[in-house]
Amino acid sequence: MQNVSRPEGSRRSAFAAAFLSFLFPGLGQAYAGRYGRALAFAALPIVLIALLAGVLANEEARRSFLFGFANPSTLLAALAVNVLLLVYRGVAVVDAYRVANAGSAVSEASPRARRRTRLHPLSIVGLVAILLVLGGGHAAAAQYNLLAYEFITALSGDEEGPTATPTRSPSNSPPGSPEPGSSEPGESGATGDPSTAPATPSATATGTPQPQPTEGPAWNGTERLNILLVGGDSRDDAGATGLTDTMIVASIDPTTNRVAMLSLPRDTESVPFPPGSPAAAAYAGGVYPTKINTLWANAANRNDLFPGNSPRQRGANALKSALGELYGLDIKYYVSVNFEGFRSVIQELGGVVIDVQLPVADDKYPTDDGRGSLNLYIPPGIQHMDQNEALAYARARHQSTDFDRSQRQQRVITSLRQQTDLGSLLDIRRLRPLVDAFENTVHTDIPADQFQGLIELASRVDLDRMRSLVFSPPFYQVECLECYSLSPRVDVIRDAVTAALAYDEALEARREALEAEGGVVWVLKGSAVERQARLWADYLAATGMDADVPRSFNQGRADSLTYTETVISVYNGAETTMPETIAVLEEVFGVTVETVADPSIPADVIVITGSDTVALPGTGE
Question: Which residue ranges form the domains of the chain, and what is each CATH number?
Answer without folding.
Answer: 2-155 (no CATH), 159-167+220-493 (3.40.630.190), 504-608 (no CATH)
